Amino acid sequence: MSQYVLRRLMIAIPSLLGISLVLFVVLALAPGDPFSELATNPNVPPEVQAALRARFGLDDPIYLRYLHWLNAMLHGDWGFSFVSRMDVDTLILQRLPATLYVIGSAQILALLIAIPVGVYAATKPYSLFDQVANTLAFVGFSLPTFFTGILFILIFSVTLDWLPFVYTTDIKATGIHYVLEMIRQAIMPVAVLGLFQAASMTRFVRSAMLDVIRLDYVTTARAKGLGQAKVIVKHVMRNAMIPVVTLIALQMPAVFGGAIVTEQIFRIPGIGSLLISSILSNDTPVVMAVTFVFACLVVLFNLIADVLYGWLDPRISLR
Amino acid sequence: MAPLLEIKGLKTHFSTDDGILQAVDGIDITINRGETLCVVGESGCGKTVTAMSILKLIAMPPGRIAAGEIIFEGRDLVPLTSNQLDEIRAKEIGFIFQEPMTSLNPVLTVGEQIAESLRRHENVTRKQALERTIEMLKLVQIPNAEGRVHNYPHQFSGGMRQRVMIAMALACKPKLIIADEPTTALDVTIQAQILDLLQDMKERFGMAVMLITHAMGVVAETAQRVVVMYAGKVVEEADVDALFADPGHPYTQGLIRSIPRIDLDSAHKTRLEAIGGSVPILINPPVGCRFAPRCKFAMDVCTDKEPLLRQIAPGHRMACHLGDTQLGGAA
């Protein structure tokens, strides 16, 4: 197993190199760079601009700049953000916790809703519960998060004034009040993101369960007199979860993408809003770093999916 | 002595988009203790549905036991809830399914699948259950049972899996084993081994076997008594010798003639006989005899009046108008 993971990580190296190359080239071809702002600044003489560009190697050919970036990355130097005036890695580490907190909680919420609802709906297909769950799920994934987010803000912040609509990292409270405030301000973004995820996941769990529930070995389990609960949990769920796990793991990158929108709506100072603001301000080193982090996450979650797959399904041997 | 299992007037219906499908339509089957009863008929005759109805293993809905009694050791199983039936499933009545390739859970070890039945029905520890499981695997002649008990189904061949299924069905020493076409999915050589094994086990534990099959060869080898089903009805019932010596119903005669024979010399070799047509779909079945459209002896009365089971010899009953003196028909 550990050998398999190690080999997969080795295979990940060339793919990450490839991804970084594509990202770098695309960004290099895009108009604007961190110094384009200087060009419009009349206080900076053109020769100073040229000297700066030369010093930072911005006029070098792309392959040299890429090798330069790669070399720096390998030495743990993620670059410098000219807009924020700080190192990119510090910046990302500053922003990452908020994103992980919101996305993690949203995923947990989604699983806590999707698995019980999907499983129960599948045991009683076409019952009232199933139909209500299906309808709600359909509504849920038809509504985009930027719509439900604003709707939530309108209802819970503006009209009812129950929850804050701006997420802040500098809460002026300590101890239990700090914790409560952290939870309070996360409720809406977590609910918006989590319910959206839960909607599609519920449908998927239900259909995966229905695929398994009709199989012969479930009848075998019933013929052993194990009882409905045990048959469902031990024999049906265990098998139905194999595709579900894959889907969830492979969906994670999309979840991060969706979080970018949610972070914008609720002003969460996370990695997603960092990406957007740095794109807008031509902060190339940050854009490069954040997109590269996303790429690493995709590779990581693919690996997690494969390992879980092998663990859930003994027919797949990880060698 | 009272029979072990008595099915009386069982009707199992399925609701479909096209109407009610009467898969089993009023059948009586009796199984005595320690006896092997074969239920034969083509695919779609209601054999499997009959077997599955006994322990309510059919999908409900759309399936439904519309009428009848299933009396097991003096107790009617039909009104019991699924929870109440769980006490009888595997403990009193064991099941062997047709497809060993799909009837075992791929993500659990075979040992776990046998042991869970023991742990459910008998007051045993995990360790005792494992020991008994290994014992069962040895009994069904799985080599290296101690090692194989921790293997997954995909590590076994079809024949070996069917042995595992038999071990599973026998684990709690039930009084009745229902084997639904246990050899259909297997090679001919393996078929014989599995049938021998079943026979062996039956003798060792003294249980009754209800063997469902469409192969008359299997019937001849294993059965003591035979029930022939056609289109959801019992058309003939007899001891195995009487059935092969003097088959009454044209359908039974057809089934017997459709067995390939190698004992005839080349002068007598003829094309293997088949019964023309196929089993009707049992939504709004026609009145009269359901076999009439395929029967070469069909008379006018056959499409008007349903033949009822009647005794034609001691212990030999059939449902056919042929030779019925009250109708004046010719045999």
Strand content of chain B: 15-25%
Q: Please report the first level of CATH classification, the CATH class of the largest domain in chain B.
A: Alpha Beta
Mean pLDDT of chain A: 85
Rg of chain A over CA atoms, rounded to whole Å, is 24 Å
Protein chain pair with the most extensive contact, residues per chain = A-B, 23 and 33 residues
Which runs of chain A of at least 5 residues are low in confidence (pLDDT < 50)? none
Membrane topology (chain A): Multi-pass membrane protein
GO cellular component, one term (chain A): plasma membrane
Pfam family, one (chain A): BPD_transp_1
Subcellular location (chain A): Cell membrane
Structure description:
The complex is a heterodimer of chains A (319) and B (331). Chain A is mainly alpha-helical. Chain A has two domains: 33-77, no CATH class; 95-312, Orthogonal Bundle (MetI-like fold). Chain A is built from twelve helices and two strands; from the N terminus they run ααααββαααααααα. Chain A has helices at 2-29, 36-39, 46-55, 62-74, 88-123, 128-142, 145-159, 175-213, 216-223, 228-266, 271-280, 284-312; strands at residues 80-81, 86-87. In chain A, helix 7 (145-159) runs antiparallel to helix 8 (175-213), helix 7 packs across helix 10 (228-266) and helix 10 runs parallel beside helix 11 (271-280). The longest helix of chain A has 39 residues, at 175-213. Chain A is globular, with a radius of gyration of 24 Å. Chain B is an alpha/beta fold and 331 residues long. Chain B has two domains: 5-92 and 175-279, 3-Layer(aba) Sandwich (Rossmann fold), CATH 3.40.50; 102-173, no CATH class. Chain B contains ten helices and twelve strands. Chain B has helices at residues 47-54, 82-85, 110-121, 126-139, 145-148, 158-170, 188-205, 216-222, 240-245, 250-257, and strands at residues 5-16, 19-31, 36-40, 63-72, 75-76, 93-96, 176-180, 208-213, 225-230, 233-239, 310-313, 316-318. In chain B, the strands form two sheets. In chain B, strands 6-7-8-3-9-10-12-11 form an eight-stranded mixed β-sheet, sandwiched between helices. Chain B has a four-stranded antiparallel β-sheet with strand order 2-1-4-5. The model of chain B has no long low-confidence stretch (mean pLDDT 87). Chains A and B meet through helix 9 and helix 10 of A and helix 2 and helix 3 of B.
